[in-house]
Structure formats: C-alpha cells, structure tokens
Amino acid sequence: REIWTLPKELDRTKLEEICQGGIVVMACVTYSPNTFRVVGDDGETDWATAWDLWRRYYAAASELASFGIRRLQVFNEPDHKESEKMSMDDYLVRMALATDAVQAALN
C-alpha cells in the first residue's frame, strides 16, 4: 500500500527538469491536524497516529529526495486565521515527528 505519492497534477518530467536545472525547490508537505491528531484531549501522544504520520513524512521526503529536493516545509502558517487549530503540544509533537522522519529519509 502506497502511503505517499507525488500529486497527479505534478508533472514528474518537469519537476526533474527544474531540479536538474539548478533551481532549489522547497516542498510544503502538510498533513491535516484534524486527520492526524497526534495529541489527544488528555495531552497524551497517540503513538499509533504519530507512527502513521512519521511514515508519511518519511515516504514524502524519500520520494522528493529522488528528485534532489532536500528542503521540506512541514507546516505552512500554523497560526494563520484560516488554518485548522491545534494545541501547542500537538504542534510540537508534530514538528518533532516530521523533522525526525525527514532527517531519517535524507540521511
């Protein structure tokens, strides 16, 4: 079962050309805090969800690295008024998981 793939709208050939042309790409890979809620109302980490989220960031970073993309933005504007709301604990756990997964994929 595939847990991450490039969006269908993204042309693989064009992405390869961009990356090989010397342009440094930063990909924004965001998973909804409502879909992947890693910290429950009790403040405890839901490790099954955390593991699923880690695997997805690892898969995304691995695939993107095959194009030479080594910069990933984990969450775009988490405090924007239109963003889904999450607790600071959820944000910190999410960032720790994602950055660990990305580093593991790139090293």
Explain what you see:
This protein is mainly alpha-helical and 107 residues long. Helix content is 44%, strand content 6%. The protein contains three helices and two strands, in the order H-E-H-E-H. It has a two-stranded parallel sheet with strand order 1-2. It is elongated and about 50 Å long.
In DSSP terms, counting alpha (H) and pi (I) runs of 4 or more, how many helices? 3
Write the H/E string, N to C: HEHEH
Unreliable spans are none
Please report the distance between the alpha carbons of the first and last residues: 24 Å
Radius of gyration: 15 Å
For the secondary structure, the number of strands is 2
Give the helices and strands, then pairings.
Elements: H1 12-20, E1 26-28, H2 47-65, E2 71-73, H3 88-106
Parallel strand pairs: 1-2
Task: Give a quick summary of the entry.
Helices cover about 45% and strands about 5% of the residues. It is mostly helical and about 110 residues long. β1, α2 (about 45-65) and β2 form a beta-alpha-beta unit.
Any descriptors?
107 residues, mainly alpha, 3 helices, 2 strands
